[in-house]
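Protein folds are increasingly written down as discrete tokens. With that in mind, we are printing a sequence and the tokens encoding its fold.
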Amino acid sequence: MTTKALFGGSFNPPHRAHRALALLAIEALQLDELIVVPAGQPWQKPAGELAPAEHREAMLRLQMQGLPRCTVSRVEIERQGASYSVDTLAQLQRSGERWFLVIGQDQYARLSSWHRVGELLRHCELAVAARAGEAVAADPALPPHRCVRLDLPADAVSASQVRRLLARGDDVTPLVGPEVAGYIANHHLYRV
């Protein structure tokens, strides 16, 4: 049986904590493949604050390059309508595979608001990332499910922080790496 995981998000923009979580998931879950999926039309994010999907995908490929057993997929970008993890997982799953869904503690705490969450949880195990020392608290409205914890080192970087720094004209290279920083600058992304 092969073991795979889905790691989705808006990646607006992708940063070093995304890469660290991808590497941690690959190693801790002993994955045959981690499929990282930039959301085409994230239903929980206001469209106005998102860079176009093609740019987010290109930056994500730069951020994840060189990671073993890691694939960036266009599955949600190519699908029409809102991007739901349950649909993505159904599209990617094959028989004889064990699947994890990699999410952060913030998402886990409000997971019951996700589209068809009961169906999603029947088809995968959760791998919840929490920073060292933080508790992992489940959304109390969730149906029974399987969950493993992924311990991330403390790193306060967030995509919203990166966007704020870019809007001020600050250098974000330490947060996103030189390739992604160069891409952002070359394409004039996240400017006010």
User: Anything to note?
Assistant: The chain has a mean pLDDT of 93.
